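Q: Got a minute? One more chain.
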Amino acid sequence: MVKTVSKFIRYSTIITLLGILAACSGNPDLENRLAADPNLQTNPIPENSPNNKQLPANFPAEIPRYSQSELLSVQTNPDNTGGQTRWQSNDPSNAIEAFYQQELVNNNWEIITPFSGEGVNSTLTARRDNLELTITITATSPNTEYSLDYRPIGTPIVSPSPSPSPSPSPSPISSPLPNLNPTSFNDLESLPNPLKSHIQDLARLGVLTGNNNQFNPNDTIKRREFARWLLQANNAIYANVAGKQIRLATPNSSPAFSDVKNNDSDYIYIQGLAEAGLIPSPLTGDSSTLLFRPNAPLTREDLIAWKVPLDIRKALPSANLDTIKNTWGFQDTNKINPQLVRALYADFQNAEQANIRRVFGFTTLFQPKRPVTRAEAAAALWYFGFQGDGVSAADALQGQDTQQSGVN
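A: Always. Here it is, folded:
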């Protein structure tokens, strides 16, 4: 009996509702009252709207995406062959640089020019198959903006379109800083040819930087700057050899040095070298190197200690101070740190490609505490290798030119 009554109530309710709806169809006033509020209706975002958060259909799947980012705007070429996406992140610019440098190498991209630029912008160019990618990162406050320009090789970069700034402080992304090339520095004429050509080669690889077209070759180089150059030169020269790349540190790693924090502009390079065991730090068991002293001058013994392991890429040979006296013949051997003698002996074994011979020429004085100039630092980084098995910056440039001519 209860079930019968329940069914009767449901059927009565349905019939009543149908009757109300039928009545509404003939009563415009009642229809308007029951209609949805037009102010609550959702208007679709046009496909080309800068507020559209969807990637374009032609965005290549092989381009890595930094997950902690917000898509700001999208622009595609008229022929749909390429385009530009602009992004914003709360993370620092060096975190985004580290991510893309690492992910591109891991995904078989060829780094044509690594991130370079000490001013507003830092740019990287990479290729994979027939695709070219240019990443431009702009460090702003409080956010970081960056753009991804993608296109088939040989086509121009899409012209950026203006878009509203997400906050009052950041300014729109400007054109990327030009890559340095041999004509960028106009103060090299007084240098001997080997040093001059080495600087020019490394500049073309995007490793070296200067101010107002001045390289200032005779100025002392800071430890932080040489650490950056060392990692970038190694990765540019070995751009196609993943096993010889030095991994950039991630910003959330625990700092190896108490005076180089995660927010330091050169943290990813200095920390990367420390994590690879290429510079003395608490990570290598050296408790006396709690400080990196990033702004101190690079000394000759620093240069040899950091560079030689990247030449031989194996354990350093056994040696002592007498070994150095009998090989290099330095008159100031008593001033050399005993911890450096193994690297000095390995450098001697590198014959004409020894860093000391290439950088300082013939000398009977090592002067271990003498500051290194920017020109000398560039000469050391021009070649990586041991006993004839190595690559120079000139070789790397020739390889790039060969690949470019093959593409064309």
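A: The CA atoms of residues 111 and 126 lie 4 Å apart.
Q: Perfect, thanks.
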